[in-house]
Amino acid sequence: MKIIDAHNHIDFHGITADRAVADMDKNGIDQVWLLTWEAPENEIDFDLFRKAIHPSFHSLTFERVHEASRNYPGRFIVGYCPDPRNPQAIDKLEQAFHHYDVKVCGELKLRMMYDNPDAIELYETCGELGLPVVMHIDYPIRLRPGRYPRSSYWYGGGVEALERVLRQVPQTNFLGHAPGFWAHISDDGQHVAEIYPKGPIVGKGAVIRLLETYENLYADLSAFSALNALSRDIGFTKELFDRFQDRFVFARDCYTTELHDFINGLGLPLSIREKVFYKNARSLIRDV
Ligand SMILES: [Zn+2]
Questions:
Q1: pLDDT mean over 241-256
Q2: pTM for this structure?
Q3: pLDDT digits (tens, 9 = 90+) for 51-95
Q4: Which is more confidently placed, 48 or 223?
Q5: Given CA atoms 60, 16, 275, 264 in this order, what sign does their dihedral have?
Q6: Could you report the per-residue pLDDT of 181-227, keeping only the tens digit for each?
Q7: What separation in Å is there between the alpha carbon of 25 and the centre of ligand 1?
């Protein structure tokens, strides 16, 4: 079966473009959405970047993504999300779209409320250009109390800001991702204290309600946040894959086979697995 990994990066955790492609070949992954993380230095957790391998960098830049896609034609779908607070953001995105074949706006991972009016304008442009937006959401959970420069790294402003975005920009598709999104698979309130909440699913989590309410929301299954959430109640998860079979998108944000193995272990019909592994990702972007 064709597989599209709709969320990954190069240049950190020791992954070069060459190693990314070798991993794709080994695991039968046809294409990766290769995403940037353009953020001011003071919004990035430097612990995460200590393993960075590109000497000049403090973020995952468009130039590096573009270079990788040029070196491996057809293997990478180019993602780019400029910081919407930059006055040139929309120009930069439009130029990248017209001249460098950008097909995705991502990854958006910034220390701002995602319904910041400047961000709304950027999402409106994404809708006009047919670019889905990949959003990383994290709550301000204190990992290192008192530590300089920040005690926590929050991004996005939580599920309330996400809902305001979905309502305000219905013509643009969004993919929800990361701990602050997936904690809301359950309505147990753990999202404010736990990055990876455990235990049975309680009530109707905001993620479920938002997927029901807003057709422009998709679920990015990448990273341990999604795998953890989906592992909490396998029966519940199987139902979700059935109900939201057009909205769940296979993605990794790492170079392991864990999620692939997990989905294959659920015993889902082929028609659902095809949607999740590549058809939904393909439907979200133009002319592929
Ligand atoms: Zn992320």
A1: 97
A2: 0.96
A3: 555 555 567 889 999 999 999 999 999 999 999 999 999 999 999
A4: 223
A5: negative
A6: 999 999 999 999 999 999 999 999 999 999 999 999 999 999 999 99
A7: 23
Going from the Cα of 258 to the center of ligand 1, the distance in angstroms, rounded, reads 17
Give, as residue ranges, everything with CB less than 5 Å from ion ligand 1. Answer: 136, 178
Tokens of 36: 């940037």
- Alpha carbon of 107 to ligand 1 centroid (Å): 7
CA of 180 to the centre of ligand 1 (A): 10
Burial category of 271 from C-beta neighbours within 10 Å (exposed 0-12, middle 13-18, buried 19 and up): exposed
Going 135 to 139 to 140 to 144, the CA torsion angle's sign is negative
Expressed in angstroms and rounded, the spacing between residue 168 Cα and the centre of ligand 1 is: 23
Indicate the CATH number for domain 4-283: 3.20.20.140
Whether 58 contacts 41, CB under 8 Å: yes
Q: Where are the domains of the chain?
A: 4-283
3-state secondary structure string, 127-175?
HHHCCCEEEECECCCCCCCCCCCCCCCCEECHHHHHHHHHHHCCCCCEE
181's tokens: 């999104």
